[in-house]
């Protein structure tokens, strides 16, 4: 009996240190300006991240089996006895598990909006003053996952039973050849998480 266990795992783990750049604080204070003054606080925060995952996993199993029993002959005897050959058997089993996990990239989504804070204060401005507070945050995350999983299983089997012959005997017995058999079992488990 021949058993093979094949496991291939490809896991992409991205450093979450990228998220530390997404947290930023912006503050601004304007006070004690004269009449008819124009006061403006503008805050702009832009976060951009691009993640590309390319995963290629290939599992290959090739199995050749030949099962053959010998010949059983009883011949040229005055009193022939029995001739028996044994059995021949091959067994092959394949269990392949392939897993790809790119889920760590989803953690970047939370990092883009968290930790950043903006505060602005305009006070004690003169009459007829124009006061404006403008704050904007832009987050862009692009994730590209390319997963190539290839599993190849080739099984070649040959089973041959030998000859059974009783001949040229005054009193002949029996000739029996054994069984010839092959067995193959394959199991594949493919998993992709993006």
Describe the structure.
The structure is a single chain. The chain is mostly beta strands and 194 residues long. The longest helix has 7 residues. The strands form five sheets. Strands 1-6-11 form a three-stranded parallel sheet, with no helix packed on it.
SS-based class:
mainly beta
DSSP helix fraction = under 10%
SSE ordering:
EEEEEEHEEEEE
From the spread of the alpha carbons, the general shape counts as: rod-shaped
Number of helices: 1
Alpha-carbon distance between the two ends: 38 Å
Biggest sheet, spatial arrangement of strands: 1-6-11
Low-confidence stretches: 1-22
- Strand tally is 11
Strand coverage percent: over 45%
Query: What's the pLDDT, averaged over the residues?
Result: 77
For the largest beta-sheet, the strand count, sense and barrel status come to:
3 strands, parallel
What is the rounded Rg? Answer: 39 Å
SSE layout and pairings?
Layout: E1 2-11, E2 25-33, E3 38-68, E4 72-75, E5 83-84, E6 88-101, H1 107-113, E7 117-125, E8 130-160, E9 164-167, E10 175-176, E11 180-193
Parallel strand pairs: 1-6, 2-7, 3-8, 4-9, 5-10, 6-11
